[in-house]
């Protein structure tokens, strides 16, 4: 039979240990220059952190929401959700109140009784003409 492969040709179970071993010990991360097994060592934690720290983004500015703004809420993806599924809710909600506690702003919305922190909300622009 042409094009037919035996189960031995397509069976990765016998090779997965070698693939993981090579990845964990030889594949250096381009950000910190360390393989995963090196980063897990006691000294490696500090080196990995120092390698990642200079490349971290600290200059992002998000507009604060005020009462009456429309926001979408962050939702964690489920186990079988695809990569293309948005992490933001499909519906937008109204900010009903803003509270400050311990130097942190909490936003109460019509989505739930639980207040949200700024990074859990996405401010959306209001349309002049709603879609029909």
The number of helical runs is 4
Q: Which structural category do the helix and sheet elements fall into?
A: alpha+beta
Text of the CATH class of the largest domain? Mainly Beta
Average pLDDT for all residues: 81
Portion of residues in beta strands equals 15-25%
Main sheet summary: 5 strands, antiparallel
Strands of the widest sheet, in order across it, are 4-3-2-1-5
Q: Report the end-to-end length measured between terminal Cα atoms.
A: 56 Å
Strands, count:
5
Q: What count of structural domains? A: 2
Order of helices and strands: HHHHEEEEE
Q: What is the correct CATH architecture of the largest domain?
A: Roll
CATH topology of the largest domain: SH3 type barrels
Helical residue percent band: 10-25%
Model regions low in confidence, pLDDT < 50 over at least 5 residues = none
Give the overall shape, derived from the CA principal axes: elongated
Radius of gyration: 24 Å
Report on this model:
Helices cover 23% and strands 19% of the residues. It is α+β, with helices and mostly antiparallel strands and 132 residues long. The protein folds into two domains: 7-55, no CATH class; 70-124, SH3 type barrels. The longest helix is centred in the first third of the chain and has 11 residues, at 16-26.
Structural features:
five-stranded antiparallel β-sheet; SH3 type barrels; 5 strands; alpha+beta; about 130 residues; single chain
How would you summarize this macromolecular structure in one to three sentences?
This protein is α+β, with helices and mostly antiparallel strands and 132 residues long. The chain has helices spanning 7-10, 16-26, 36-40, 42-52, and strands at residues 70-73, 93-101, 104-109, 116-117, 121-124. A hairpin with a 2-residue loop joins β2 (93-101) and β3 (104-109).
